[in-house]
């Protein structure tokens, strides 16, 4: 029997507060048998409480996660580094080894929710992006370019 190694993936966004945290949470929840997921930020700024709430509503607990700097992962070999926002894609550092840099962008829930009048209205933005990220994660690893 051949034992397949897990793909090691790092999800990056600017603050590692929302989108990359959601991607890491979904990947570990849905694809934990095939993917070892991590997340980091170009400029970490703390875990977004609305991201935690949105993921919790979907049954994925990311409340113990915390924002991490990309530099924390510079010495780890990844198969893929996936940027989930434009700023992170434009500022993605070079990773050693064979890491393939891939971009799959998602809208920024905090930005979308900035003019929301109620928490429920704000949460609707987070829920939509959460669900879009889930749909993307469900396509992994088949949707990734070959190494």
Summarize this, please?
This protein has 147 residues and is α/β, with parallel strands linked by helices.
What topology does this entry show?
Blueprint: E1 7-13, H1 19-31, E2 35-41, H2 49-57, E3 80-83, H3 86-90, E4 100-103, H4 109-112, H5 119-138
Parallel strand pairs: 1-2, 1-3, 3-4
Description:
It is a single chain. This protein is α/β, with parallel strands linked by helices and 147 residues long. The protein contains five helices and four strands; from the N terminus they run βαβαβαβαα. The protein has a single domain (7-138), classed as Rossmann fold (3-Layer(aba) Sandwich). Helices cover 35% and strands 15% of the residues. A four-stranded parallel β-sheet has the order 2-1-3-4. Helix 1 links the parallel strand 1 (7-13) and strand 2. The longest helix is centred in the last third of the chain and has 20 residues, at 119-138.
Please bin the fraction of helical residues. Answer: 25-40%
- And the CATH topology? Rossmann fold
Our Rg estimate from Cα atoms comes to: 15 Å
Mean pLDDT: 92
CATH superfamily: Response regulator
Major β-sheet profile: 4 strands, parallel
* CATH architecture grouping: 3-Layer(aba) Sandwich
Low-confidence stretches: none
Q: Biggest sheet, strands in spatial order?
A: 2-1-3-4
Strand content: 5-15%
Supply the helix-strand structural class: alpha/beta
| Annotation, overall tally of beta strands | 4
Net shape: globular
Query: Can you identify the CATH class?
Result: Alpha Beta
First CA to last CA: what distance? 23 Å
**Helix count?**
5
Quaternary status of these chains? single chain
List SSEs in N-to-C order: EHEHEHEHH
